Amino acid sequence: MKPAWMFALALATAFSSSAAAAAAAPASAAPAPANRFAAAPAPAERFEIKGMLVERHGGGAGPALILIPGLATGGWVWQETVREFAPGRAVYVVTLPGFDGRPALAGDPFDAAKAALTELIASRKLARPVLVGHSLGGSLSIALAADMAGKIGGVISIDGLPVMPRSEDTPPEQRAAMAETMRKRIEAAPASAFPAQQRQYMRSIGVVDMGKADEMAQLTARSDPGAVAAWIGAVLARDLRPGLARIDAPVLVIAPYYAPDAAALGGISAAEKVAYYRELMSGTARLQVEPIDNARHFAMIDQPQATNALLRQFLKNL
To answer: Contacts from 217-223 at CB under 8 Å and sequence distance 24+?
Structure first.
């Protein structure tokens, strides 16, 4: 496995950008076509909790779903999940402060998001809701399930883990210093470079389809670069593994797998990736880890049918 500092450097490179990268971005010669991700289903209700936007869809007798997007994304990333599950249950889609055009908040974004999600569950009297998170949204779901044992019905995490991969052996003091260094490096990048950086990230890490990557980058570029930097630092600084044993709800971790990327990184197999994710989740009492083939980080965008099938089976078994 790569040393933690090498992983941090790679992540900082992926999430930071330069004015040169922005200048190299191709200019549009004609108006862009309509963005398919901007046409998300209309919610039945919209409200805010502690700066977090909440959109409620559907209703029904089943346990409510709370969908938590990842870095720089908004509720639009869950539109296929909403279409699939809202007809039979209440689905709450959140957008975190600083993302998708939302104003950022001061302070630690991870703790603020946990507080807002806790208030959402309490204020709406949601009985054992199922948390569905992508990336940092998955890490938030894991943290919340550990803090709210007995009150969460299930956790589904799409490529979100309790500790940043390849940093699991980093001592706490070194982890904090590394997180702060990375946050400052990303925050120092010029704001004008942010759209080009988002496009590069989506094309190399986000999704397989380049057309989808470019449309998603148009939307993630609406996020606050400072909030993105703060979130990266907050996630890297945390190691949630000590709390995994407190989670009494069943947990499904989805591990996207894209063979060309795996070959470039040394040829890790899908089974090896699943085993590694299981290792990072060690201590979770009721754990299931499932791969999704031909998918990058946004598995629900690359393979919506396969992702929804795993969600549907998980909910059926609750």
So the answer is: 218/32, 218/35, 219/35, 219/37, 219/38, 219/73, 219/74, 219/76, 219/100, 220/71, 220/72, 220/73, 220/100, 221/194, 221/195, 222/74, 222/100, 222/101, 223/72, 223/73, 223/98, 223/99, 223/100, 223/101
